[in-house]
Design brief:
The chain has about 500 residues and is of the alpha+beta class. Among the domains are: about 10-170, no CATH class; about 340-425, no CATH class. The chain has helices at about 30-35, 50-55, 120-140, 175-185, 190-200, 210-235, 285-305, 310-320, 320-340, 350-360, 365-370, 395-410, 415-420, 435-445, 450-460, and strands at about 10-15, 25, 70, 75-80, 80-85, 90-95, 100-105, 120, 145-155, 160-170, 235, 260. Strands 2, 6, 7, 8, 9 and 10 form a 6-stranded antiparallel sheet that branches. Strand 6 (about 90-95) and strand 7 (about 100-105) form a beta hairpin. Helix 6 runs parallel beside helix 8 (about 310-320) and helix 10 packs antiparallel against helix 12. The radius of gyration is 23 Å and the shape is globular. The two termini are about 30 Å apart. About 45% of the residues are buried. The mean pLDDT is about 95. Bound molecules: adenosine monophosphate and magnesium ion.
Length: about 500
């Protein structure tokens, strides 16, 4: 159900600001299916009113009329510091279709825009669009992107750019920050409404528990633990894991200066405003855990409805303990699978960590290294394994390969079966920064073909797609450090 809380301390009616002369930049037929949109032979909506709707120029199409567009308030911790009230500064919730909330990002000022203009630029909208759809195709929970609509309207950032609106879909956009907002105001009524709404619509299994709110908290923790393990497994860095960017449904949301690892560096920082590396790749699990602790503090008054303060704290502290366990379980499962291991042995974690260490030391390509593991035959001779040539420290990788070949002996699958299993675990195509950048530069010249091409390739990330081989390659040297900033 769409955000059903009402009252001006929760959300404000917010009509989108019209965008002059909009045009399609990108459209996802796969996301359109979620809301049952009828498409023409070009894969665009038959009802042309959708272009105006997704630009923020109308609230109605032939089938649907959104009568209450709104923006919601939330608060949060940014870079580890309490930032107070934030809110949907440039996201407007139009309403719900087929149990999906439809939001316009960049459709103008809202009551929570503070100093911002409520707009988004073409560059960041294309990045959010492509990454949302790519993550979905990788099997990683995420908000979806329906379209990017562009305009020649200027938007000032470091330089003058043009405006775009990215329309996104999710069963709910409720964030940890929504809980933190009402938690900070000790507003138990609103906290209870939020928790009840989540339980009713998204976590019905919590309803029968003796402690539904503790159960809800645990479920949110496990979903986000599983999510961050999935990110680690594909080398995805979110970039801004502030508590206001963390979904209460365990979805990847708020794509900004994210990045997929090219050369593997365990402490890689993708957001160039993150000087201290708080959101570096290897810190993501710990930061997500920290965000769950913020949620626990926010939910405390809810527990205190039925328990003493001490009891409430201890219930939530114990529940928070689920996070590292759920994370480790999922991470081990995913990494074992990436190595083609279906059985479990005690030394597997050591084996996995040994590979990651060697990859880090030699700065090999994250995606391609994992993908190529599936070509290793059980009876291979170390000298024949092409992958070893990618590593600087030959002795280190040879030792690892010896351990790996030995470990493969206790696996039941034959080489071909293991290869097809591993190729569903190790994607060949991810949204590398240089690919997104090339598509953006063309789009800035009004050529959107590369955006469509990337959408198509990334919608089948585990397939070989021989004709697209170049899209699986590591970036050329001069494109290795595409810097991405927050000003989007
Ligand atoms: P982010 O780090 O992108 O999730 O944004 C943090 C906060 O700033 C959120 O409350 C956003 O809605 C708000 N914000 C970001 N960019 C803008 C903008 N151009 N105009 C208004 N608010 C913005
Ligand atoms: Mg945000």
């Amino acid at each position: 159900m769409a955000f059903t809380l009402s009252g001006d301390d929760v959300c404000q009616p917010t009509p989108p600001t019209p965008l002059p002369l909009p045009y399609w930049v990108a459209f996802s037929p796969s996301a359109a299916k979620l809301i049952g949109l009828e498409l023409n032979s070009s894969g665009l909506p038959v009802d042309t009113a959708w272009l105006d709707l997704l630009a923020g120029n109308t609230l109605a199409t032939k089938q649907i009329h959104f009568d209450k567009p709104l923006a919601t308030v939330y608060s949060g911790h940014q870079f580890g510091v309490w930032a107070g009230q934030l809110g949907d500064g440039r996201a407007i919730l139009l309403g719900e279709i087929n149990r999906q909330e439809l939001q316009l990002k960049g459709a103008g000022k809202t009551p929570y825009s503070r100093m911002g203009d409520g707009r988004a630029v073409l560059r960041s909208s294309i990045r959010e669009f492509l990454c949302s759809e790519a993550m979905h195709a990788l099997g990683i929970p995420t908000s979806r992107a329906l379209a990017v609509v562009g305009s020649k309207q200027g938007v000032r950032r470091e330089t003058m750019e043009t405006a775009a609106v990215c329309s996104r879909l999710a069963p709910s956009f409720i964030r940890i920050g929504h809980f933190e907002h009402f938690g900070s105001l000790a507003n138990v009524v609103r906290l209870q409404e939020l928790a009840d709404l989540l339980i009713a619509d998204h976590y019905p299994e919590c309803r029968s528990s003796q402690e539904p709110y503790v159960e809800l908290f645990k479920s949110i923790c496990s979903r986000n633990a599983v999510l961050v393990a999935q990110w680690q497994a594909v080398g995805f860095c979110h970039g801004v894991l502030n508590s206001d960017n963390i979904s209460a449904l365990g979805l990847t949301i708020d794509y900004g200066p994210f990045g997929f690892l090219d050369q593997f560096q365990i402490d890689h920082i993708c957001n160039h405003s993150d000087h201290a590396g708080r959101y570096a790749y290897h810190r993501q699990p710990q930061i997500m855990h920290w965000n769950m602790a913020c949620l626990a503090s926010a939910m405390l008054p809810l527990l205190e409805l039925n328990h003493s303060a001490d009891e409430s704290q201890s219930l939530l502290r114990d529940a928070l303990g689920i996070f590292p366990l759920a994370y480790a379980k999922q991470w081990q499962h995913l990494l074992r699978s990436k190595l083609g291991l279906q059985s479990e042995e005690d030394k597997d974690v050591e084996l996995i960590e040994g590979l990651l260490q060697a990859m880090h030391d030699s700065r090999v390509d994250f995606t391609n290294t994992f993908r190529s593991l599936s070509t290793i035959r059980k009876e291979a001779k170390i000298e024949e394994i092409a992958l070893r040539d990618q590593f600087i420290d030959r002795e280190q990788i040879d030792q690892w390969l010896r351990d790996y070949l030995l470990r493969l002996q206790s696996e039941m699958l034959d080489d071909d079966q293991r290869k097809s299993f591993m190729d569903r675990m190790n994607p060949k195509y991810v949204l590398r920064n240089h690919l997104a950048q090339a598509a953006i530069e063309k789009a800035q010249q009004d050529d959107f073909s590369e955006v469509s091409k990337l959408l198509e390739i990334l919608s089948k990330p585990y397939d070989e797609q021989i004709e697209c081989e170049s899209y699986s390659q590591a970036p050329p040297i001069d494109m290795q450090a595409v810097a991405v900033s927050c000003s989007s």
